[in-house]
Amino acid sequence: MSAGAKKRIMREYGECMADMPPGMKINFDEKNMTEWEIHMDGPEDSMYAGGHFLLKIMFPSEYPFKPPVVSFKTKIYHPNVSNDDKGSMCLGLLRPDEWKPPNKVVSVLRLIQTLLTEPNADDAIEPSIANEYKENRKEFEKNAKDWVKRYAK
Amino acid sequence: MAAQSIGVFTIAFPDPTTLSHSNNDLVTLPPTVSFRLSLENNIRTLSTNGVSKGSTPHGLLYVPSLQSDDCKDIEKQHVPNNVTRVDDLPHNMGYSLVAFAPWLKQPKCIQQYLASARNQPTKAFIVYQPGNSTDVPPPMNDPSWGLGDGGSWKRANPFPVYAISSIYGAIVMKELKLYSGNVTEAPYGNTLLSIYNPSSPTDYIRLWATVNTGSGTELPSLWVFLVIVLGLLIAIVGATSFFMHLVQRRRRNDLRQRIVNGEVDLEALGIKRLTVPREYLEQMPLHTYVPRCEPSEVEKEGVPDDPRTSPPDTSSAVRADTGLKTPAPLPSNAHASADMAPPAPSAFSQPTCPICLDDFEPSATQVRELPCRHIFHPDCVDTFLLSNSSLCPMCKTSVLPAGSCPAKITNVMVRRERMIRRMRERSTANQGSTGGQTGHSPVFTSSHPWPLGSIRSHIGGAIRQPRRVFSAPERSTAVPVPMEMGRVDDVNRALDEEARPATAGATQTSTIQQADTRSHCEEETAHIPNRREWARLRALALLGHGQAPFVDVEEGEADRRPAWRRGLRRMFPGFR
């Protein structure tokens, strides 16, 4: 990782600290600054309210030319988060072909928060959950809350 | 050649010494009143000398005479006294003969039989091992056929040698006795004489043998057949390979031509990662940064840029889904006009370097301007372009000059490009067939999850309807656009508004960044049928490798394939 990229990550960390979206906390390790741990509370107006989620943001060595990789370490019932041990999330500006260098981690964090409130079923990574979200919202909410209770307490 | 069948017939023919009849008078006697034997299975070919494929050695059957007395004594056990000998046949009339003898235990006697047969116009030699067996005689290399000379007898005689089973040998030998002179002892002998031999009592009724070595229509031996099949296969494979090479070569040239013409951008299509050679990079202008607006106006708020002066990248951009460059309105002219404005370089709309996020310092910072007119710190963008990509990090437009083409167009690149083109054509066809739906917003039915979805998204991408990521409209006001992003967004927004008619309302401007991202997504993915699966795979690939799934196709595919597949691919380019 080049010095420029490190400088940029440091700078972004500073900006995140200055303008932290509510309910989020960043664990930043100077020695391994390409891997951020994010502790996030489920947004109050979502079905994930009351849950505490652990996320990882990994910065690829080509950052900022390549997007950071976001993964949920806490299991979450969500159409845009893969339901496996990776818990990966890849949509919108996180897509490699959508990513532009001026995009920032703050906007990534905001995107994540927004997605928890409003899942994007049309661009889902888990089609079955997306279908349930679209057709049987009650069942979806019940499942999501159930998972919060089970995994995110 | 190996014998297929041996037939023994009784024939009648006039005595050539008393009558000058031609051979046409030779009559085969009917089996009802004479001896006839046909052997098909129990034949063993011992030697094939002097017989060619398809020929049928035939002749009058006789038993060769022996020289030594001890052999004659042994012969007596198996051969009756008055069997047909050479003396019982017309002399020196050129009749072909077939010798017949028991395979005596003493090699010396057999040699005498063979020597005797060599002195006659013998066409074939039929032997049998004395006994009562009806089995096939032992094979050619069986020791019982050995004469103590290492098998050279098989080659030493000008006629083929066949063996029949013991019991048939004994039968034929008995019949040779009956039909050796006067046939009165034979069954129906008097009848035969009265019917077929009325003219002269010296006319002949003898046994005649025919060895059939296989007809011409019969298939050649298995090996020849296999060789022919193999040869045909090789010829077909070779011809196919040659043809595919030819086709692939034409496609490569075609693709190269289109790249040179600027119709296709390999990197924008994700086909091949290109880099910018240093000499091209050095041709891109370096300027000293001059803010576009008055310094007092360059504030943190980010002044909305005038669309007309913003980078003209939408006009010359490569469409994400097609990879086709829409004909740029004279990009060279635009560039020339920028160059013609020295010494003060044209004003720049970007106040920060998008890579390191540092602000450019007016009249101090050196900036690199790419052909799409985006500017960066040279330190930030040069290494990227030299080693990572040929696309502008901002607008993904190729910075390579028109007509530049990678040195090597590989078959993989051709295949990818064709695949993308086909998908594009398909989605265009879909769009055409559902074109009537574009007016009213189509209802997404989950019974056809992907076809409708892809069509719909394509339409959405094509007419650039403003779309929101999130279904609830109230969120659009709840999510504020970050301050810092506002400035770069302004550029994007300006571009979007340029391309988009005045549909951009007040509510969507705040989500325009997301919406823009969204529509790009859909354009990009419209040609992939199962978008969700695709997205999933991409996400997994992303996590698996820890980097973007932009696999460089050459190395990536070649390494994962086993050697035989690589060989196959080399032989049949275009083969999957």
From TrEMBL, chain A:
Q: What is this protein called?
A: E2 ubiquitin-conjugating enzyme
Q: Which domain of life is it from?
A: Eukaryota
UBC core domain: which residues?
4-153
Q: What class of enzyme is it?
A: transferase
Q: What is its EC number?
A: 2.3.2.23
UniProt xrefs under Pfam families:
UQ_con (PF00179)
Supply the PANTHER family for this chain: UBIQUITIN-CONJUGATING ENZYME E2 (PTHR24068)
Entries under InterPro entries matching the protein: UBC, UBQ-conjugating_enzyme/RWD
- Record has Cytoplasm as a keyword: no
UniProt keyword annotations, A-Z: ATP-binding, Nucleotide-binding, Transferase, Ubl conjugation pathway
GO MF annotations for this entry? ATP binding; ubiquitin conjugating enzyme activity
From TrEMBL, chain B:
Which SMART domains does the record cross-reference, listed alphabetically? RING (SM00184)
Q: Which UniProt keywords apply?
A: Membrane, Metal-binding, Transmembrane, Transmembrane helix, Zinc, Zinc-finger
Domain of life from the UniProt record: Eukaryota
Where composition is biased (Polar residues), the residues are 439-448, 505-516
Write out the GO MF terms: ubiquitin protein ligase activity; zinc ion binding
Compositionally biased region (Low complexity): 334-345
InterPro entries cross-referenced by the UniProt entry:
E3_ubiquitin-ligase_domain, Znf_RING, Znf_RING/FYVE/PHD
Q: Where is this region: Disordered?
A: 292-345, 425-450, 498-527
Q: Give the GO terms filed under biological process for this record.
A: ubiquitin-dependent protein catabolic process
Q: Name one GO cellular component term.
A: cytoplasm
Question: Where does the sequence pass through the membrane?
Answer: 222-247
User: What PANTHER family does the entry give?
Assistant: E3 UBIQUITIN-PROTEIN LIGASE GODZILLA, RING FINGER AND PROTEASE ASSOCIATED DOMAIN-CONTAINING
- Name the record gives this protein: RING-type domain-containing protein
Organism (species): Delitschia confertaspora ATCC 74209
Write the lineage as a comma-separated list.
Answer: Eukaryota, Fungi, Dikarya, Ascomycota, Pezizomycotina
